[in-house]
Write a structure and sequence with these properties.
The structure holds two protein chains of two kinds. Chain A is flat and about 70 Å long. Chain A is built from eight helices and no strands. In chain A, helix 1 runs antiparallel to helix 7, helix 4 crosses helix 6 (125-155) and helix 6 (125-155) packs antiparallel against helix 8. By secondary structure, chain A is mainly α. By secondary structure, chain B is mainly α. In chain B, 81% of the residues lie in helices and 0% in strands. Chain B has helices at residues 5-44, 49-63, 67-80, 87-112, 116-124, 129-159, 171-182, 186-214. Chain B: It is found in: Cell membrane.
Chain lengths: 219, 216
């Protein structure tokens, strides 16, 4: 593989993959907290809508959703998304639905007495959430969020089928140029492995920090 | 924007073929991942660390890299090594191999959850190793992990469209072909999206009921 291939395709591809991961995980985090909190809401209608959202977006395949946003939404809505943003939208919405289940599970795992104590101290619902529930729920969320983030990183490879120039797409081009599949695809797999390893390490550190804030030491 | 029902009916024959291919991938992929996952899980407990380390590294590597890139790897590299499979076979092997690394973790957790007394009882009865595994440990482990395995079958279903990337004629690829020949992408793609929800949602309800019944 020549230096030119690296410089023009593979390295920008890695950059696109990183951007996709960051943008879609930001969107997924917003969706996850929004929908996850809605699932513990007082009103039955809100709970139902949030549950319907998670079931629909967890039920369908991220790739099909991506194709749908790319090919069906433009004639339907009259405007077209740049492929990159169609991809971010699809990844963020579907992984957000998985994240919502994590948020809901973690909120439910906080001891009920904590919520009752918050009510007894006449904290407003928002104060209760911010000062009592979330600080205890967030450390519980981090390990499953770490797995989800690795899944999302792997999910970004799907965008190469839509022609976004991420590292998988670069691999495809390099294969066409060099006629040597084994080399470039091995390199690509190692790149993803290293990125995923960095994510797991980062999340471990974050988990230690948030648990230390609670006065709990991690084994 | 107008929805054209005739395009939906025109898509139905292709859609039927696509559903059958998807279910075939799902059945064979599950079979491979369940059996290979058990092999990995037993290798995790091998007495020699020269077995445990490489197996841990390989499964971790397969688990944290994208299935799509693995598909392309097998699809392009195997022929270079002189192994020629059809796209469908390559896809089934790739998806089975990928998910076997997930099921291996599930088996591992299930085996670890079997109470220690069961192992001790098997030793006390001086059961041979294969009887200990197949008559004592695995039946108890499988009961606990059946719902988790079911969840992975559902995720595998949602990953089958990736095989469209290597031109396997499953549901998504059928809808792309239908769109390419009629210039109507809206209807076929929507049908496929809805079909996934219609298969996955009842399946997840089934897994949840399984969970209530088996895991105590």
């Amino acid at each position: 593989m020549t230096a030119g291939l690296w410089q023009h395709w593979v390295l920008p591809g890695i950059w696109i993959t990183l951007q996709l991961t960051v943008y879609s995980s930001a969107l997924a985090a917003v969706v996850a907290f929004g929908v996850g909190l809605a699932r513990t809401h007082r009103s039955r209608l809100v709970r139902f809508l949030a549950a319907a959202y998670t079931e629909i977006f967890r039920g369908t395949s991220a790739l099909v959703l991506m194709f749908w946003l790319f090919f069906v939404l433009p004639p339907l809505a009259g405007w077209q998304l740049v492929p990159m943003w169609a991809a971010v939208l699809a990844l963020g919405l579907s992984y957000g639905a998985y994240g919502a289940e994590i948020v809901r599970g973690a909120l439910n795992s906080v001891a009920p007495a904590q919520r009752e104590a918050g009510i007894a101290l006449s904290l407003t619902p928002w104060q209760r959430l911010r000062l009592v529930l979330l600080p205890q729920a967030v450390p519980e969320m981090i390990p499953p969020f770490c797995n989800l983030l690795v899944e999302l990183l792997k999910g970004t490879a799907l965008v190469s089928l839509l022609g976004v120039g991420d590292v998988s797409f670069a691999a495809y081009l390099v294969r066409l140029a060099t006629q040597d599949s084994a080399q470039i695809y091995s390199v690509t797999l190692v790149i993803y492995f290293v990125l995923a390893f960095a994510i797991t390490r980062g999340m471990k550190a974050l988990e230690r920090r948030t648990k230390a804030n609670l006065g709990v030491s991690t084994p | 924007m107008n929805w054209d029902w005739s395009a939906v009916w025109d898509f139905m024959p292709r859609f039927g073929d696509g559903v059958l291919t998807t279910l075939q991938i799902l059945a064979l992929g599950s079979l491979i991942s369940f059996s290979l996952g058990l092999v990995w899980a037993l290798a995790f407990r091998a007495p020699s660390r020269f077995v445990r380390w490489p197996v841990n590294l390989i499964t971790e590597f397969i688990r944290t890299t994208p299935l799509l890139v693995q598909l392309f790897f097998l699809f392009f590299v195997l022929p270079e090594w002189g192994v020629k499979f059809s796209a469908l076979t390559t896809g089934i092997l790739a998806i089975g191999l990928h998910y076997s690394t997930y099921t291996a973790q599930v088996y591992r957790a299930g085996i670890d959850a079997v109470p220690k007394g069961q192992w001790e009882a098997a030793t006390a009865l001086s059961l041979p190793a294969h009887r200990t595994w197949f008559a004592v440990i695995l039946p108890q482990a499988v009961r606990r992990i059946a719902p988790a395995l079911g969840n992975y079958v559902i995720s595998m279903l949602k990953d089958t469209p990736l095989l469209a990337g290597i031109s396997v004629l499953e549901m998504l690829q059928q809808s792309r072909l239908a769109g390419a020949s009629t210039f109507q992408y809206t209807e076929p793609l929507t049908v496929v999206g809805v079909a996934f929800i219609l298969i996955a949602y009842p399946a997840s309800l089934f897994v949840r009921s399984l969970e209530r019944r088996l895991v105590r």
